[in-house]
Amino acid sequence: MRVSKWWFLGVGLYSPFALAAQGHTDPVASVILVVTTILFFAIMGRYIAKRFNQPGVLGELLMGVILGNLCYFAGSQLVIILREGSSIFDVLKEVLQGKTLGQAVDAVLTNSYYASQLTQALSGPNGTEYLKIAYVVDIFSRYGVIFLLFMVGLESSVGELKNTGRESILVAIIGIAAPMILGFGVAYLLMPGSTLQADLFIAATLSATSIGITARVLKELKKIRTREARTILGAAMLDDILGLILLAVVSSVVINGAVDAYTVGRIIVYSIFFFAGTLFLGPLILRRAIYFFRFLEPWEAKLFVSFLFVMSLAWLASYIQLATIIGAFAAGVILHDGYFKADKSSAKESLSIQHLVSPLESILAPMFFMVIGIQVKLETFFNWQVLFLASGLVVAAIIGKLVSGLGANSKDDRLLIGIGMLPRGEVGLVFASIGRTLGVISDDLFSAIVLMVIITTFIAPPLLKARYAVKKKENEHEN
What is the enclosing helix (H) or strand (E) of 150? Predict the structure, then answer.
C-alpha cells in the first residue's frame, strides 16, 4: 500500500503536469513549468537516441509517447487535454457559440469514452488553467514545425534544385507515386468503412521523405559527395516540394468534402504561382529589407530579416489556403547568406543564417515531436485492427520507397538509393498531424501512421550503414 501511495503521489499528483495548476499567483507560472518540463524530457529523449546512434527526432517522439501515456494512466487531466490536440479549440468554439460543455465535446469527439474524460478535465477547478497551458504548448509546437521546415529548406537551394538531374527527378516521381498507390490500396482494403479523404491522407503521408535524417546519416558516414548521395538528396528535395503541394491538394479536398477538379486545379496553380512568385520576388524583397535594416548590427539584421521572411511567407501560404510549412520551406530554399555579403559592413560576419536560426528550431521543434508523441494513445494498439493496419502501412511504406531506386542510374546502387528514401521522419509526422487537425484521421489511424513513421525512421540509418559496409567489402574484393 505504501509503495502504491508514493507512486501515485510522485507520478500523478506531484508530477509537473499536475503541479502546473496548483493556484500560482503568476498567470504564466504553470505555462513556464509545463513547457520547461516538456523540453527537458525532449532533451532526454534526444540524448537516449544518440546513445543508440539513432536520430534525435526519434528519441523526442518516443519520449513524448512514454511521458504522455504514463501521465495519462496516472490520471493527469492536463495530459487528457493535450492528447486531443487542436480538438479542444474546436470544443471552445462550440461553447462560445452557445452549446454546453458536454454538448460541445460530444459534437467534436466521436469516442464517448474520451469525450467524457475531456468533459471532466475541462469542467474541473483547473480547467481554464489547463486550456491556457494547452494553447501555449500548441502554439509553440506550430512555431517549431515552421522553423523545422525552414531549416530543411536551408539545406536545399535553387541551384541544387535545378541541377538534381534526370535520375533524381525519376527517383522522386516514383518515390511519390508508388507509396501513394500502395498506401491508398492498403487503406482501401484494410479500412473498408473509411472515407475517401482518409484514404487520400494516408496515401499522401506515405509519400513523404525526410531529407534531414538521410542527410545526417550520409554526413556521419562521410558519403555526402557520392553519386548515390547526390541522387538521394536531390530526389528528397523534390519529394519535399511535390509532397507539400500534394498535402495542399489533399487538405483542400478534405476541407471541401469532395474531389473537386476545379479546387484541385486551383491549389496546384496556387502552389506553382506561390513558388514561382516567391522565387522571383523573394530576392528583391530580401535586398530591400536588408538595406532597410542596415542600422542594426550585422548578426541582428540577418536574424530579424530571416525571421520576418519565413513568417511572412508562412502567413502568405496560409492566406492563399496552402499549408504554412510550404511558405516556411520556400523561405529556406530562397534565403542564403549570400544576400547579406553584399553589405560591406557584414563582410566579416561569420555567423550564418543556420547558426542564428537553429537555436529557435532546436528549442521549438522538440515541442512539436513531444506533442505528437503525447497524442499517440497506446491503448489503441490493444486493438488488433490497428496493429494489422499499421503492419500494412509499414510494408507499403517500405516497398514504395525501395522501388524508387529503379529511377536511378544503372551504374549506381539502386537499393542504396531506395533505402535512403525510406525515413518519413518529421515530414510524415507533419502530414499526420495536419490530417488529425482537419479531423480526417481518427485516433486509431493516427497511432498506426505514427508507428509507421517510427519504424521507417528507425530502420533507415542502420540499413544505410549496412549497405555501405557491403559495398565497401565488394569493392575490396574486386580490388
Answer: helix 127-154
